[in-house]
Every structure is written in structure tokens, then in C-alpha cells.
Amino acid sequence: MLVIVVSLGAACLLGLGFVAQQHAAYSQPLEEMLRPRLLLDLMRKRLWLAGVGLMACGQILGAIAFREAEVAKVEPLLAMNLLFALTAAHVIYQEPFGRTLQVGAVLVCGGVALFLFAGQPHGGRLPDTLSPRWLAALPVVVVATALVSYGLRRSLKIKAILLAASAGVLYGLQDVLTRSSLLTLDSGLSVFMTWQLYVLPCVAVVGLLLNQSAFDAAPLQISLPATTVAEPICGIVLGVAIFAERLQVTPAALAGEVSGLIAMATGIVILGRSPFLAKPSQPALQGTHEEER
Q: What pLDDT score does 262 carry?
């Protein structure tokens, strides 16, 4: 129960942080996408710094949850950050919730509950620092790179979605590296002697740049859902591949797990299309963001 509460607290802070970051990043010129200058300029904005602070606090709570529970158990709960982002935007804009958004909220919450109930994630252990299991991280990097490369040749909306998905994939890897570093510390080994500790901030910074570039390209309802869907899926797959975490594999359990993930992803997409997540003063893809130059 404590892990659930901590994970939901992390999701809440992450959702609030994403709202603040997107409001700040969306006003930046498109020319700054995927360039370090984007982060340097955003660092001068108090709203963005507040958003990063909220996200950092959420990641700390997430790290506590990863220390106590399997990745496959925590990731679906963190995916509810979009629900909290929508609620925050609803309070700011004072707009009513329609039936479609209610359906989306039910799908997200029900999908998370169904996956955890059916899968019952358990087990898992910390692999050796140089274990071949860590090779499972290489396809993740390849996928993230491919999404960015393909997105650069597409329209602005598709580019935002693919950049956000790439960020989500790296965030899933970041979650696994965080759990590895914490478990290494708990085992009494020197975490400073592991390569995971030094790769972790690199993955985090690249993921942040991709995420802010997606926020720069399009409103939150376009850019955030892909991140929210990609992160738990990547994290769960890596948790099974690297930490040997186990899920129930009976036909009924597999049906429940797949149904839960589909329901969660569908609900996230529905919530992500909410107009409450767009800035009223800057309609989606208008002005300098109307078309790719």
C-alpha cells in the first residue's frame, strides 16, 4: 500500500511539473528544438524551473518506490501523471469535464488496476554490473534514435509525438538505471564503481531535451501522451529482461495484462486530446508553431 501511495504522489508531482514545463517551452522558437540552447534559455524562466523542481521531486518519490517494488509494479502507477496534469489544467482553466474525459479517466485507472491485479509483478534481482542482461538496453537506445531520426523528416505534429515517444523510451531506461543504482547501494557495494550511475544522468539529460523539444513543438495534449505511454511499456519490458521480474503467464492473466495495458494506453490518448491541456492564449500549432519551416 505504501508503494502505491508513494507512486501516485510521484505521478501527481510529475503531472504538475509537465504542465508548467510545457507552458514555458511552447513559447520558445522552433529553431531551438533538439539543441542545448533550448535548455539554457528555459533555465532563465521561473515557471520552467518550478516545473523541473516538481518533476525532480516526483522522480525522488519514484526512486523510493523503485527501491521498494518491482519496475513492472511502479511504472503503471507513474503513468497516471497525465490524469493529474489534466486535473491541474482543469482547475486553471475552470472548464467542465465531459463524458469523453470521464471515460478516459476510467480507462487509465481501470487499466492500471487490471494490469497489477492480473500480472501480480513479483520477484526480480539485481544483475551483475557487467551481466549480459544489460544488453537489453541497447535496443532501447536504437529505438529512441530511430524515432528522433524519423521524426525530423515529418510534419511538426508528428515530430512532436515521435520526440515525446523517444523521451518516454529513455525515461523507461532511466527508471531501470535508477532502480539498479539504488539496489547496488542497498547491497553494500560501491555504487560509484558501476557504469550505471554515470550513464543515468546522461540518459536523463537527453530525455529532458527530447521532452522539452516536444513541448516546444506542440501543446501538451499532443506531446505528453506519447511519453506517458512509452515510459511504462519500456520500463516493464526492461524490468523483465534485466531484473528477471516475473508476471503471471496463465492465459487468463496474460489476457488481463494485455487488456490493462491497452485500456491504460487508450485512456491516456483520450485524456491527452483534452482541450484543457492547451494554453488558451496559444491555440495548438498556431503562429510560429503552425507549420514546420
A: 92
Predicted TM-score of the model (pTM)? 0.84
Q: How many CA atoms lie within 13 A of 58 on its CB side?
A: 26
pLDDT above 70: residue 97: no
Q: What percent of the chain has pLDDT over 90?
A: 44
Angle, in degrees to the nearest 10, between helices 156-186 and 195-217? 160
Residue 65's contacts (CB-CB under 8 Å, 6 or more residues apart) are 3, 6, 7, 10, 74, 77, 78
Residue 279 has a pLDDT of 47
Return the bridge partners of 246, or none. Answer: 122
How deeply is 282 buried, as exposed, middle or buried, from its count of CB atoms within 10 A (0-12, 13-18, 19+)?
middle
Whether 272 and 80 have beta carbons less than 8 Å apart is answered as: no
pLDDT for position 274: 67
Other beta carbons within 10 angstroms of residue 31's beta carbon come to 11
What are the phi and psi torsion angles at 23 (to 5°)?
-60, -40
86 or 12, higher pLDDT: 12
Whether 54 contacts 20, CB under 8 Å? yes
Are 213 and 275 within 8 A, CB to CB? no
The number of residues making up the chain comes to: 293
- The answer to whether 190 touches 197, Cβ cutoff 8 Å, is no
Region of 284 on the Ramachandran plot (φ > 0 left; ψ -120 to 50 alpha; else beta) = beta
For residue 293, pLDDT over 50 is answered with: no
* Mean pLDDT across 55-72: 91
Report the distance separating Cα 1 and Cα 271, nearest Å.
Answer: 26
DSSP H or E stretch at residue 243: helix 220-243
CA distances in angstroms from 141 to 168, 207, 216, 232, listed in the order given = 11, 11, 23, 16
Tally helices (H) and strands (E) across the chain.
11, 0
Res. 281: pLDDT tops 50: no
| Grid cell for residue 104 | 478516459
C-alpha cell at 197: 550511475
